[in-house]
Design brief:
acid-amino acid ligase activity, GH3_M, 482 residues, 20% strand, alpha+beta, 3 domains, four-stranded mixed β-sheet, eight-stranded antiparallel β-sheet
Length: 482
């Protein structure tokens, strides 16, 4: 099994090297595929006048750059039940809508997706562990304690599923059929992840993680804040967790039959583990019992796996407190519209995280931020970006979004072979401005950190979370931070 894993990892790493070497050729092929499969789509054929061409030059000349609002009439038609080829070709109908975290007019964005989008997302996901194993030794020997969750889903008026990216991923047949292996894959049973009751799901995942604490090599969730929520859950529920472990019986607060059945296969009476948890989570040892709690309870943990860039950077100091300074790996960059790339230097400092765009995911273009506005003629292809410059990401994906402004601002920090490496700077529309100034997330984060160090740290306190707004009710205007 180990030899097979090593061979597969080597093939994945070789794939990364090959696909990042021929970036422009891959991008040309991807665009041709997208245009060919969506040739009879109303948007491309009638609105843009492509008439079935797969030529890149014609595409760049005829297809406009758009925002979500520009495509909203088409999206609403599909959501309301129009089954004609509106955004995608007749052979690849929209299969579901993914709910974006962004908003438009107070409503969540709906990102159309087709069936084989899942294959592309899973392909990118499959590259992460080979990269991690290249940078961290011993990961094959243990498992991951990941706090993953699904959310309740609904349907559009036309009957298409409407759910988050992670809910779509975890409810896919591919992941549901993966064998449960707490010692070599993940400590959380699938039933616990799929439970829509957040308390029951978190309780079961935490309990199984505690039972397999010596097998855990990495602790993670999607975003950094999720790990803080998990620690807070442990702070609130460690007494009941210890009682369950001591008795070998699950609390009656867990009522989901599938979760109870899954945990029953893990839970055994273990008074020693129960006493250990009580010692570590109380003040029995003196001092602040929560400092370094992750490495004390899961002593073989090598890193935390969570996105800690952008607005999530504010949680890094608190994660360092709970983990004793473990490395934080931000491994993947994606959105509801598309998965974009991975971090090939995952053990770098969070402030230095950059992602290498994988050119097989979609067709990528970039709008220079130092240009004269939003003219599509200014768009630069993936192979043409320049080191040090900032761009807004524009994507053409397989699901009918063509030259779509994602809204992310990226800075080119280097190249891996011929593939550009980008650092996430900010969301394009998440900027505070009183007058002519532009204060982005990174600037605000640095200001909050300085204020926290000067005003709170001497009193043993820290900022756990914050938000902000612009106030122009007085002169001069200013920012208010809560």
């Amino acid at each position: 099994m180990a030899a097979a894993s090593t061979t597969e990892d080597a093939e994945k790493l070789q794939f990364i090297e090959e696909i990042t070497t021929n970036v422009d050729a891959v991008q040309e092929r991807v665009l041709a595929e997208i245009l060919a499969r969506n040739a009879d789509a109303e948007y491309l054929a009638s609105n843009c006048g492509l008439a079935g061409t797969t030529d890149r030059t014609t595409f760049r000349a005829k297809v406009p750059m758009v925002t979500y609002e520009d495509l909203l009439p088409y999206i609403r038609r599909i959501a309301d039940g129009d089954r004609s080829p509106v955004l995608t070709g007749s052979g690849h109908p929209i299969s579901e809508f993914l709910v974006s975290s962004g908003t438009s007019g107070g409503e969540p964005k709906l990102s159309p997706t087709v069936n084989d989008d899942l294959d592309r997302r899973l392909l990118l996901q499959s590259l992460i562990m080979p990269v991690m194993k290249k940078n961290v030794s011993g990961l094959d020997e243990g498992s991951g304690l990941y706090f993953n969750f699904v959310k309740s889903e609904t349907t559009t008026p036309g009957g298409l599923p409407l759910r988050t990216v992670l809910t779509s991923l975890f409810k896919s047949d591919h992941l549901k059929k993966l064998p449960y292996d707490p010692c070599h894959k993940y400590t959380s049973p699938t039933a616990a992840v799929l439970c829509e009751d957040t308390f029951q799901s978190t309780y079961a995942q935490m309990l199984c993680g505690l039972c397999h604490r010596h097998a855990v090599r990495r602790v993670g969730t999607v975003f950094a804040y999720g790990l803080l929520r998990a620690i807070n859950f442990l702070q609130l529920n460690w007494r009941q967790l210890a009682a369950d472990i001591e008795a070998g019986e699950l609390t009656h607060r867990i009522t989901d039959p599938s979760v109870r059945e899954a945990v029953a296969g893990v839970l055994r009476p273990d008074p020693d583990l129960a006493q250990f948890i009580r010692m570590e989570c109380s003040n029995s040892n003196g001092g602040d019992c929560w400092a370094g709690v992750i490495t004390r309870i899961w002593p073989n943990t090598k890193y935390l796996d969570a996105i800690a860039t952008g607005s999530m950077a504010q949680y890094i100091p608190t994660l360092n407190f709970y983990s004793g300074g473990l490395p934080i790996a931000s491994t993947i960059y994606g959105s509801s519209e598309c998965f974009f790339g991975i971090n090939l230097r995952p053990m770098c400092d969070p402030s230095e995280v950059s992602y290498t765009i994988m050119p097989n995911m979609a067709y990528f273009e970039f709008l220079p931020l130092d240009g004269d506005g939003g003219d599509a003629s200014q768009l630069v292809e993936l192979a043409g970006v320049e080191l040090g410059r900032e761009y807004e990401l524009v994507v053409t994906n397989y699901s009918g979004l063509c030259r779509y402004r994602v809204g992310d601002v990226l800075r080119v920090t280097g190249f891996h072979n011929a593939a550009p490496v980008f650092r996430f700077v900010r969301r394009g529309n998440v900027v505070l401005s009183v007058d002519v100034d532009k204060t982005d997330e990174a600037d605000l984060q640095r200001a909050v950190e300085r204020a926290s160090s000067a005003l709170l740290r001497p009193h043993g306190a820290a900022v756990l979370d914050y938000t902000s707004r612009v106030c122009t009710e007085s002169i001069p205007g200013h920012y208010v931070v809560y």
